[in-house]
Structure to design on (494 residues):
């Protein structure tokens, strides 16, 4: 596949997660990114053989709501950390790392408020994966199992891939210029999964130079790469060597 | 022979870092620097492998773009990739003889003045979590002493990464790896922001960040995160750490 040539080797799990997401159904009243996120939650539950999934949208000043959930029961657990003030997803977000809890019973002391309610209501395992790219953080993908359960290695790889695809969707949603159709053609190209150092160095430079947020700096670099039909890594290297910056007011 | 004084210095430095509340990115960077010095090589780089078997560049002793490219290139082919796949050291004492094995990597390595490569696995029991890559300017093998010490550095890096005395949970390895990979991105984002703010190179920006973190006794990753998320941005580095 041609697009692998200039990208870091695309993760097969990412390709698979995106494909599975596209094959899942969303509620009829949802559209655009909201529908995509619900599809992703449902695909994650089906293909990871788990029972529920929730995407929490969060900011450093606190939760900003639920982005999507696979089903109403999960949505209820999704609200829980924000009522009890503790929970794996809050830790995953603040510590910027996954929190994988195959047996909530054994870990109940870590989150007494959350655990007492969640265990009572029949949650056996929780896997919280931050939706982030470096210091850009959108929230957390929470995966639930009603029974205590371990994720096998291939399930972990796929779960992480679902989190990366969710992050891509949220990054794309942050691109107001891209409109709300959400299809994001460039997302289908491996290049957006590219985490070579230069790309993030250039992102930091664009943030400072154009006075953007870190997320918007990435969005503008990607828009520039897409509109000029060039790989993101080339755009990044050009910026690092003092070349032109993407146009912030852009097309 | 490696001078015993030199060896002592390296391991005292490593131990000092590990007992403190250390920053992993900073630590992996210093492991790469020590590996270069011990081996007398041109550069050393550390790669971690993720759950999909992709390699992520975590730190290098050199900022030379051509050498850095050689580390990254190995996502497609190269000694470090082979080493991570097999869990065994991969050695080419004369790269010119290894063109068939790595047709893309070798010409680029030779063009960058690299003639020998040693790749050491970072092994955690049966799992390989990455590799430490040493590039030499001359063809030839490392001495058996050098090999043992560099492999020991790779082992220490593995222990530092996992951080727990007894790994009771397989999940912890994933948590730590993912955290390390994301920390690396935070540091790159901060390097770019600092370089642009102060009109310096990314390598100089990295040195500025490391020095500031050390002087203020905060972890490099935490400082980097503050630099790219606080309203003041990189200008917080203008204040002296004692303020």
């Amino acid at each position: 596949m041609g697009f692998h040539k200039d990208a870091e080797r695309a993760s097969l799990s990412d390709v698979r997660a995106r494909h599975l997401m596209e094959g899942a159904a969303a509620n009829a009243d949802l559209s655009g990114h909201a529908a995509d996120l619900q599809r992703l939650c449902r695909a994650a539950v089906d293909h990871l053989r788990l029972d529920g999934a929730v995407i929490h949208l969060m900011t450093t000043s606190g939760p900003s709501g639920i982005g999507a959930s696979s089903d109403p029961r999960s949505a209820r657990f999704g609200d829980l950390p924000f009522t009890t003030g503790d929970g794996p997803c809050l830790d995953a977000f603040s510590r910027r790392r996954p929190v994988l809890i195959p047996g909530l019973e054994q870990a109940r002391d870590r989150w007494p408020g959350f655990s007492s309610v969640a265990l009572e209501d029949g949650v056996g395992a929780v896997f919280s994966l931050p939706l982030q790219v470096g210091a850009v953080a959108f929230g957390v993908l929470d995966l639930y199992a009603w029974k205590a359960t371990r994720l096998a290695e291939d399930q972990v790889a796929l779960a992480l891939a679902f989190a990366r695809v969710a992050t891509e969707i949220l990054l794309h949603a942050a691109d107001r210029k891209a409109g709300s159709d959400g299809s994001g053609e460039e997302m289908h190209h491996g290049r957006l999964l590219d985490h070579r150092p230069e790309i993030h160095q250039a992102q930091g430079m664009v943030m400072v130079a154009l006075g953007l947020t870190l997320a918007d700096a990435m969005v503008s670099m990607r828009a520039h790469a897409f509109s000029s039909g060039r790989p993101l890594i080339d755009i990044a290297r050009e910026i690092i060597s003092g070349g032109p910056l993407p146009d912030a007011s852009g097309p | 022979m490696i001078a015993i004084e030199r060896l002592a210095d390296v391991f005292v430095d490593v131990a000092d870092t590990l007992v403190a509340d250390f920053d992993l990115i900073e630590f992996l960077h210093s492991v790469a620097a020590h590996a270069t010095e011990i081996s007398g090589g041109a550069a050393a780089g550390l790669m971690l492998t993720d759950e999909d078997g992709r390699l992520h560049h975590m730190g290098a002793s050199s900022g030379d773009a051509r050498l850095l490219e050689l580390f990254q290139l190995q996502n497609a082919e190269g000694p470090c990739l082979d080493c991570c796949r097999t869990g065994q050291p991969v050695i080419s004492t004369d790269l010119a003889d290894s063109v068939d094995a790595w047709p893309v990597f070798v010409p680029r390595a030779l063009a960058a003045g690299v003639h020998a490569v040693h790749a050491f696995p970072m092994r955690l029991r049966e799992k390989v979590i990455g590799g430490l890559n040493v590039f030499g300017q001359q063809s030839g093998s490392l001495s058996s002493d050098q090999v043992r010490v560099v492999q020991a550095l790779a082992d220490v890096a593995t222990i530092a990464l996992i951080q727990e005395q007894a790994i009771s949970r397989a999940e912890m390895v994933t948590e730590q790896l993912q955290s390390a990979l994301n920390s690396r991105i935070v540091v790159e984002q901060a390097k770019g922001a600092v370089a642009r703010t102060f009109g310096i190179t990314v390598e100089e920006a990295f040195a500025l960040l490391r020095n500031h973190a050390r002087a203020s006794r905060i972890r490099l990753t935490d400082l980097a995160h503050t630099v790219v998320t606080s309203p003041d941005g990189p200008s917080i580095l203008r204040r002296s750490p004692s303020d």
Remarks:
- Chain B has two domains: 4-165, 181-238.
- The mean pLDDT of chain B is 89.
